[in-house]
Structures are given as C-alpha cells and as structure tokens.
Design brief:
Layout (H helix, E strand, L loop, with lengths): L15 H11 L3 E2 L2 E2 L1 H9 L13 H16 L3 H14 L4 H12 L5 H10 L4 E6 L5 E14 L2 E8 L3 H4 L11 E5 L3 E6 L11 E7 L3 H4 L6 E7 L2 E8 L2 H11 L3 E5 L1 H17 L7
Antiparallel strand pairs: 1-2, 3-4, 3-7, 4-5, 5-6, 8-10, 8-11, 9-10
Helix pairs in contact: 3-4, 4-5
Length: 287
C-alpha cells in the first residue's frame, strides 16, 4: 500500500519555481533526471542541506584559528585542536600550500606530550626526550627537571638535562646555563620515563637590569625578580635568568630604556648582537 504523503500548496512570485529547481539541481536533489522542488523542501525541513551564503573564513579568521590550534596543542587539548583544524580545512578556502600543511598535521598520529610530561613533572620522574630542532636535527636529552613556561604567546617546555655539547658553542660565555633548554612542544618526538634523581629547579644566573624613561613606572615585575628598587631616574632590577635568549628578546624591545648592567657575559652577548646589526646596516663602529 502506498505511503500517505502530506500535500501543500505554495503561493510564490514568478520565477521562484525556477530558482528552487536550480538550487535542487545544484544540491543533486532529483526526481529521475529532473530537479525536485519537493525533495528540496523535505531536505530543508530535515536540516540535511544548507541554503544561503556559504560559510567561509576570511584571512584574519584563518590566522586566528591557526594560532588557536597551536595554543590548544601546547595546552594539551589535542582533541579540541584537531576539531578546529578540521573546521579550518573544511571552511577556510585555503591556498594549496597551507591546505597541504594543515592536512599533514591532521594526518599525523597525535601524541599528548603535554599531558604525559606534566604527569612526569608531578611525580618528579626523570625522562628521556627525543627532540627535532629548527634545523631538523634530532637530539635526545635526559631530563632531570622540567617546567611549562609561557613566552611570547606560546607555551614552551623548560628543561634541565645532562647533555651540554649541543649548546657549548652557542653560549660559550655562559657555562652556568649549559644544562638548560627551552623546547617547543610541537617538536617533541618521544618521551620515555627513566630512573635517576630529580632536581629542584633549573640553573640560573642573576642579571642586573636598569630601566629608564617611561619604563620606570611601566615595567611589570616578573616572578623571577629578586630586587626592584628605584633610585633617582633609574629602576634597578635583579632577576634570576634561566635562558639568555628570552632576556635578549625582552631587552631588544625596550631599546635604550633598558640596559643589562651585569654580569659581563650577558652584556657581551648583547654587544655582539648590536655589533652584528651595525654591520648589517653599514654603521661604522670603533675597533
């Protein structure tokens, strides 16, 4: 016995039937070989099709979602990062190189390094870590202390490790910090627990900074600051520093309003940066 169907009568302006048929044809809703307006109405009622302007993302929205994916991965929210990534691929209308790069991320097996490492930190369990640096060189470290730290809009992993050979040539003047590393979570390849003693903290050096001008009042104290005194027109801060790279980045933003006073090794490191800039911009310096 044929299944009973409801019947409705529509009053529509001239030309609307042809437009509905065009939409049905585009969505491949057909009766035989002809576009089916009835089928289109049923599909709309069942929420199985989208009608109207397609939902797409503009360049700013794409960039914001890429940053959100990085932040979610860094924070250990892997599933949420993959959901945002899938949305970006579906709705982003991306150029081929970016789309292919994102597809590789979606296809790679996801390892929740952040969660695993936080478990090891909580239990003070040393671990081996395999890492691929920015030059695609694979390095392995035996980690005896680790902290998750936030630098320039991203979470990083700060570690104290047994190995020193890979940085001795990079910071020969700072042997006190040879055991420290600052790593990106997305470059970690493997984490395996091991035996050994856990250290209480990273290695540090004390650096004296002088802030001048508007920074006397604008400088925001850091957790690592040991002293903070304003004497005359200079704000004098002594800070524990575990990584010279991030200190140099901070000082460079302030230009002449921030000076590294001591130790001499940190002053020399910044001097070399300044001298390199002078050469690049054809500024003559006294020998």
């Amino acid at each position: 016995m044929p299944r009973k169907k409801d019947t409705i009568t529509l009053s529509i302006p001239p030309g609307t039937k042809e437009k509905l048929e065009e939409i049905a044809r585009r969505l491949n809703i057909l009766w035989g070989k002809e576009a089916s307006v009835s089928g289109l109405i049923v599909a709309i009622a069942q929420h199985s099709v989208e009608i109207g302007k397609p939902f797409t993302l503009d360049a700013n929205q794409i960039n914001a979602l890429q940053q959100a994916i990085k932040a979610l991965n860094d924070a250990g929210h892997i599933g949420e990062a993959q959901t945002v990534l899938a949305l970006l691929l579906e709705r982003g209308n991306l150029e081929a190189p970016l789309r292919q790069s994102l597809m590789k991320q979606l296809g790679q097996p996801v390892r929740e390094w952040r969660s695993r490492i936080e478990e090891l930190i909580q239990t003070q369990q040393p671990f081996y870590l395999l890492y691929q640096n920015s030059q695609d060189r694979e390095l392995d470290y035996k980690v005896r202390h680790a902290q998750v730290r936030f630098f320039e809009k991203r979470f990083h992993l700060m570690i104290w490790c047994d190995e020193t050979a890979d940085v001795e040539d990079d910071i020969p003047e700072l042997p006190e910090l040879w055991h420290n590393r600052c790593l990106s979570f997305d470059r970690i390849k493997s984490v395996v627990a091991t035996s050994g003693d856990w250290r209480d903290e990273l290695d540090y050096i004390e650096v004296q900074l002088h802030f001048r001008g508007g920074l006397i009042k604008a400088y925001q104290p850091k957790e690592e600051d040991l002293e903070d005194d304003t004497i005359g027109d200079v704000r004098q801060v002594v800070r524990r520093v575990a990584n010279p790279f991030w200190l140099i980045r901070e000082v460079a933003r302030y230009w002449e309003d921030c000076v590294i006073v001591s130790p001499e090794s940190m002053r020399d490191r910044l001097k070399q940066k300044v001298l390199t800039l002078c050469k690049l911009y054809d500024i003559e310096t006294r020998g």
